[in-house]
Backbone:
């Protein structure tokens, strides 16, 4: 898998799991599914940062999103 794609997917999955965590906590339920999605997102981000030789700088992340969107979206 392309490290840029893995980083983008990991950040999107992690961002989408935050409302799920907040919803589970406000309903006084255990956020089990949310915890799994956070782990998946974290694993994708870790894979991406270890696959790229120099890693990612914080300034690069928006450019990575644009490159991935341009490459995979019609």
Residues:
């Amino acid at each position: 898998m392309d490290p840029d794609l893995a980083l983008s997917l990991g950040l999107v999955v992690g961002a989408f799991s935050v409302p799920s965590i907040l919803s589970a906590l406000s309903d006084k339920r255990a956020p089990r599914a949310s915890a799994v999605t956070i782990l998946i997102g974290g694993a994708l981000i870790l894979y991406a940062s270890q696959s790229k030789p120099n890693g990612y700088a914080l300034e690069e992340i928006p450019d990575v999103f644009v490159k991935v969107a341009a490459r995979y979206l019609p």
Notes: The mean pLDDT is 94.
